[in-house]
UniProtKB/TrEMBL annotation, chain A:
Enzyme class at the top of the EC tree: transferase
Domain of life: Bacteria
Pfam assignment, any one: ACT_5
SUPFAM superfamilies from the UniProt entry: ACT-like (SSF55021)
Secretion signal span: none
UniProt entry tagged with the keyword Transferase: yes
Keywords on record: Transferase
NCBIfam families recorded: PRK11152.1 (NF008362)
Entry's Gene Ontology molecular function annotations: acetolactate synthase activity
Protein name, per record: Acetolactate synthase
Amino acid sequence: MKHTLTIALKNQSVAVERFLRVARHRGFDLTTMNLEMADEAFHVTMTVDSDKPIYLLTSQLNKLVDVKHVNVENQFQQQAI
Amino acid sequence: MTGAELTIDLLAKHGVKDVFGYPGGAIMPIYDALYGAPVKHYLTRHEQGAGFAAVGFARSTGKLGVCFATSGPGATNLITALADAMMDSVPLLAITGQVPTAAIGSDAFQEVDVLGMSLSCTKHSYMVERAEDLAEILQEAIHIAQSGRPGPVLVDIPKDIQMAQVPFHPWLAAEDHLPTLDSNQVAIANQILSEAQRPVAYIGGGVQAANAQDELMQFLEKTHMPAVSTLKALGSVLPDYEYDLGMLGMHGGKAANLAVQECDVLVCIGARFDDRVTGNLSKFAAKAKVIHLDIDAAEVGKRKPAKASLVADLKTSLPQLDCFVTPDEWLTHIESMMKEHAWRYDYPGEKVFAPYLLNQLSQKMPSTGVVCCDVGQHQMWVAQHMKFSHPSNHLSSGGAGTMGFGLPAAIGAQVARPRDFVITVSGDGSIMMNIQELATIRRNNLPVKILILDNQRLGMVRQWQQLFFEGRYSETNLSDNPDFVQLAAVFGIPGQTITKADEVDAAVDALVNSEGPYILHACIDDKENVWPLVPPGAANDEMMTETVK
């Protein structure tokens, strides 16, 4: 199942490493990512793919000190193989 | 004021009186600032020892533990202790020296990207890039380590920033955005409880983290709910509680595991359905509706779905569960199981029987004493056969399962609680992993007791090789161990060796009554196993209990 997330991060270079590490470790494959800096924060839009429910990732991301907020924008239907 | 002086000053201002560490090139300014400062430094003989001593300090008090290390290998040696503290939610502050700012990224001498290494084993971490940020970062780090669900925080400070003149601005902690209790979820939880016929309370390490033993006991006393505990929770339920079933899980008691498997409501209080607790997750408490209380929303539904989730500080959420009384029929059944599956100590052999020894130790040592375990068979025997009156009296590496934890953790506990009896219970494998800390005990004249249960094997691995690897004993024979009593004697620590069952009582008396540090080296049967055992992939009611030798 693919999900698109938008994440606002504190403007610290390590913040990006930190949330990407969590996504990988918790079993969510990154498929696309865009990062922009505005209003002294990093704004990330990314799509992840996993068999796991998305809340298992968002609940972990929400705990990170560098993460200001996380939103699940939309969710793709799993494509038939 | 230099950055180094500010670091020590801030620690003192936050009530830190004791720190553990090891100096080196990139942290020399901080060690210079320590000279004559009101913060006492305990020199360990390895940075991992400093990390675990700080963990022992924190876990035995509930206060912040602090450790120092230099850059490069000094910092990497701390990593295992950080991972241990992360898994067990321990409030820890690690301060590491870093090469000067201008040298970062140049592969300088003793340069390692410590911030990068810390990402997976800390709650949060920093590298200080500007001298003017130091004060705020340190104060924020101290706050984060102890707020919400506690955890380790690392602050990496380049040497030039330690030496620079830095401003000090008091940092006012931002208001904690701790979760507030959802009244709808409370209502659902109370509705589930009101219909429960066979409830069980499943207690975790969160009770100690929230300092909620009183609230827990009030809940148990008013409901009479049978209670099972994780390894980290042991001591949360007071030993005289009538329906205390002890530890559940892979090496849990049979009554504890059967009660959970049969229950219709499972009230999870600050626990996280760890795989060593649940066995086969799909078969764990399969008939139960789960009510999950935790301050960390990420734990709810992570491993097992909950019908009601009370995400808040346990001190707030536990009193919200209404008065409800466990049905007598269930309690009668629980009592019957407790009687049927009670531990037995009538061991027929002439050798030292570790469960009996530990049970004797538990009865003879002060109830306020602290037991620090290493990892392996002895650790499980301690959990099964010793009683604790508070979780801060039982320090065992739970989530990480780190061999070498026990001796330095006992040093930290003894520093934190100098008037209390502190003992490390170890195995002949684990003790060698941080044996150098005997020098720290001697240097500081700490009256730490040491019990080594010596089966000349890596016992838990040997047990699994016997049971699940066709008796192929690969690299688990330690029959070439050193003489542990002689080894301790080199560090000026007295002790004795025992080999027979009839020596146990007097030896435990000698250990408990010794004035200073003391080592009891108990040789046990190399074929003794830990029972019961839930084998890999099995449900918790499929325990192996026969004594296979």
